[in-house]
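Bug #77: duplicate submission created two jobs. Keeping one. Sequence:
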Amino acid sequence: MRLTESQRWFAFALLILTGWLLYLLAPILTPFLIAAFLAYLGDPLVDRLEARGWSRTWAVTTVFFAMTVIIAFLILAVAPMLQKQLILLAKTLPQYLQWLEAHALPWLEQSLGATPGQLELGTVSNWVTQNWSTASGLASNVLNYATKSGGFVMTWIANLLLIPVVTFYLLRDWDEFMAGIGHLLPRDIEPEVAHIARDADQRLAAFLRGQLIVMFALGSIYSIGLWLVGLKFALLIGMLAGIVSFVPYLGFIVGILAAGAAVLMQTHDALQLLPVLAVFAVGQMVEGMFLTPLLVGDKIGLHPVAVIFAVLAGGQLFGFIGVLVALPVAAVLAVIVRDLHRRYIDSAIYQPKLKGPQDDEGAGD
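Kept job's structure:
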């Protein structure tokens, strides 16, 4: 695939224009990106139902209904429990900080050779206490503002209602959208672009659909295990560890550190660390032997450092929108970079120039 000079400039201008539009439209893109993400997740299920003889409309309706039930269950069942644990954490955090200052800091000062009083948590404890005492007032002020501000309420409701509507229409016409995009490509580059797109789609599908299941499964395993151990913040810590597990071993490390600190402050018994370690060891074994090999594999091809950088870079450049699209964009870029690497290896720049007979005669003369 060789691009002409005009095609190269056109592609470059289109890329710049797309980035500029994304930057300008970032505040309103969130519901559309969430809807596109949900439609992308649901399209393979719709295609499978169509292959079994279902009409597109009935297949889309069934998958859309199933996704709505699952999301509603997560919001109605899990969100209130997480809210209760967050409130409990805010109430007990000053007590935990006082315990750290009374017991853990003296040991750290002795171990690190720091001057007594150099490590001070009193300021943090006072700040948490003062802000918690005004938290209810702050929440009521925000609620009053949101209630009086008709524009704010209407925007929030419109975005909330927009997500399922856009998801349904994207899910119904997804294949037509993809075919339309392919039809717009120049004919001489369409086969190569289609090949790269299929490769990127396979990697994205393996990561997004599989990793979401892995994250939810790990969050459930950690939450249930920590609840059996008796940890107060089992659901909060377990789900946090599950969410950040999209980076290999990060969920395991974050979960052990958070759960270990919480169980020490709750029980003041170092032996209680053993059940916590057992919970995360079981979760790690289940992930390594069953969940990741079956659901994700090694198809995304992104190094953990690249994953972290992509998420941070997306958030820095485009805020929450950037975080949403960071990994899909990184996966597509990884496919393009591999294709460029293959072309470079096969090019005359990399390959040694073979000497012909005339070169040998010239050398002999």
